Amino acid sequence: MLARHRKYLLKDTKQLHAHVQVNPTGLLEVEIPSQKQSHTAEFEHLRFERSGRVTKLVGKHTSNGKPVHWQLPLANDDAQELEHLIDEAAEELEILMRDL
Predict the structure, then answer these.
(1) Phi and psi (nearest 5°) for 36?
(2) Is the dihedral of CA 7, 76, 40, 66 positive or negative?
(3) What are the distances in angstroms from CA 39 to CA 47, 51, 99?
(4) Around Cβ 83, how many Cβ atoms within 10 Å?
(5) CA–CA distance from 20 to each of 40, 69, 100 (Å)?
(6) 34 Cβ neighbours under 8 A, 6+ residues apart
(7) Backbone torsions φ then ψ of 71, nearest 5 degrees
(8) What gap in Å lies between CA 77 and CA 82, rounded to an integer?
């Protein structure tokens, strides 16, 4: 089980790139270096919202006891790929937990 890394161009932005890491432990990590932003979320706190040619990845995590919501506008193809990577990682985690 290895983490999968991808770099996506964010839609509707000024050429911002996001570095995304899908961890097989059930965690997604996002870094936007040019804006010095980072976000995390467990898989169950992620959802994809499709609208036209853009799909928003919406996530939530807790910081200092308060919920933090974030979103990334992705091209539909990129969002599909990311959704597939998340599904694969979730399945790998489920198999590992079942084998324990």
Answers:
(1) 50, 45
(2) positive
(3) 14, 22, 31
(4) 16
(5) 10, 17, 28
(6) 16, 17
(7) -150, 150
(8) 9
Residues counted in the chain: 100
Amino acid identity at 22: V
What whole-number distance in Å separates Cα of residue 61 and Cα of residue 97? 23
> Helix, strand, or coil here: 96?
helix
100: helix, strand or coil:
coil
Tokens of 98: 């079942």
Residue-level pLDDT, tens digit, the chain, 100 residues:
689 999 999 997 778 999 999 998 899 999 999 999 999 999 999 999 999 999 999 999 888 889 889 999 999 999 999 999 999 999 988 888 787 7
The token pair at 56 is: 């928003």
